Amino acid sequence: MQLSEQEIIRREKLTALRQLGINPYPANLYPVNHTSKQVKEQFEEGKKVIVAGRLMSVRDQGKASFAELQDSEGRIQLYFNRDVICEGEDKTLYNQVFKKLTDLGDFIGVEGELFTTQVGAKCIRVTHFTFLSKTLRPLPLPKTDEEGKVYDAFNDPELRYRMRYVDLVVNPQVKDVFIKRTKLFTAMRTFFNKAGYMEVETPVLQSIPGGAAARPFITHHNSLDIPLYMRIANELYLKRLIVGGFDGVYEFSKNFRNEGMDRTHNPEFTAMEIYVAYKDYNWMMEFTENLLEFCATQVNGTTEATFGEHKVNFKAPYARVTMTDAIKQFTGFDITGKSEDELREAAKAMGIEVNDTMGKGKLIDEIFGEKCEGNFIQPTFITDYPKEMSPLCKSHRDNPELTERFELMVCGKEIANAYSELNDPIDQRERFVAQMELAQKGDDEANGIIDEDFLRALEYGMPPTSGLGIGMDRLIMFLTNNPSIQEVLFFPQMRPEKKGPELTEDEKLIIGLLKTENNQPIASLKEKTGLSGKKWDAAMKGLAKHGLTKVVVDGDLKTVVLS
């Protein structure tokens, strides 16, 4: 492992602390009794407190220093006075441990008394401090100049997502997004629980990938010697519970789809699905708009939210537009009664890329997605989807070519999907067979496996039921004004981290010597390595090629430095 100069110095400080008898990673409990927020809100002059957190800044004033401590709720100012911390003649704790062996980012525990500084800042006068964890890597802390301009901010998206633990420390505002995410889940649970519905859990590993049109991740169970699929949806299991006698069940599920990645899709995502017996999609539309109005208010304190250039209002009621009318409005084309070939030709005429594997449902979906979806900014229910698009949905009571389905569109994106659920087992089998035929034609999103156990469950009888699914990641994107799904996931999926160049032993030797003492005369450094001229030249060429070292010429003096 190649260490930077700062990392080497921090390890040397770690050794020095241990030599002084200080354990840099103590195991015993530290008796914190206040957070930074509580100190400020319950401030009393002279009050004794115990706090803990990361040391984030230090202003050394000789025999005294001001510092900032950051914990889970913010920052608080500390005042270290040498003679207060070290009452006797031995000043090692301040002069050596605090000033020389403590680094920014270190976790410390602090005992002290509250006081107000001359400029009115609330502060803790430290009487004792304890090492809780020594950091071996420096934090990428941003710097602010006198004019308030920020430099060296930790804002590279790939680094932030890959090292979220660092992002949360140096960009505290990022934490607010995840606090709101938790508030959203809490609000939704509260709404469902008050309605009398029960939270349940269903399998993540499934023998058949069902409940959605998506490509699954496949694994293998060694003991059973069978393939298993990561859950793409939990719908069919939740419906089994309705068959079993529950009137309302819901689940926040981790789903996995082996498909593309972009700003609104991650291969692992969180969905909420709820199923309520004796209801239909009309009831579910009203339930959904009331649910989202409640959630928006709980998360942001208002039904209004800003997303990019748009102001969105989640206050009920929402507009309702049929899919047929939406396509007719934005393309002039009426999909009613059209054959698969007619739909394919119409899509081509609109400049939409299609192929022969697409059935009627996929073709209509492509037309709507390309030409209509982006026009719906305010929450809008798109209703009454063609039957070919909805294999698990009940036929429309007034038009057998349609289904009783809606999707909720916000800012051109779907955030909710709901049905009057299909509970006719014979009709359901026919829909499954149609899906299997699409899969055989080459549609890799169509389900090519019939779930016989689910059909058996329906044959035991499922009451009229309405179901709703909401993409939780996408919903919190809208509520926090984040256009990228990676911003609302603690740990989004990333490509493997690129490793540094593979170095030869000779190259490593030179790098090690330069990390001990940088900027060495080239002749002196070569002598220290003991390498032959040929090996030295090869190693130096390799390091230069990797951009790790460079030769600096100053008159007759040539030195080697780390790049």
From TrEMBL:
Biological process per Gene Ontology, one example term: lysyl-tRNA aminoacylation
CC cofactor note: Binds 3 Mg(2+) ions per subunit.
GO cellular component: cytosol
Subcellular localization, as worded in the UniProt entry: Cytoplasm
Reactions catalysed according to its record: tRNA(Lys) + L-lysine + ATP = L-lysyl-tRNA(Lys) + AMP + diphosphate
Domain (Aminoacyl-transfer RNA synthetases class-II family profile) ranges: 181-496
Keywords: Aminoacyl-tRNA synthetase, ATP-binding, Cytoplasm, Ligase, Magnesium, Metal-binding, Nucleotide-binding, Protein biosynthesis
Keyword Translocase: no
Needed co-factor(s): Mg(2+)
UniProt-annotated binding residues for Mg(2+) 1: 407, 414
Transmembrane segments: none
Annotated Mg(2+) 2 binding sites: 414
PANTHER family (alphabetical): LYSINE--TRNA LIGASE, CHLOROPLASTIC_MITOCHONDRIAL (PTHR42918:SF15), LYSYL-TRNA SYNTHETASE (PTHR42918)
Subunit organization: Homodimer.
This protein's name: Lysine--tRNA ligase
Organism: Flavobacterium indicum (strain DSM 17447 / CIP 109464 / GPTSA100-9)
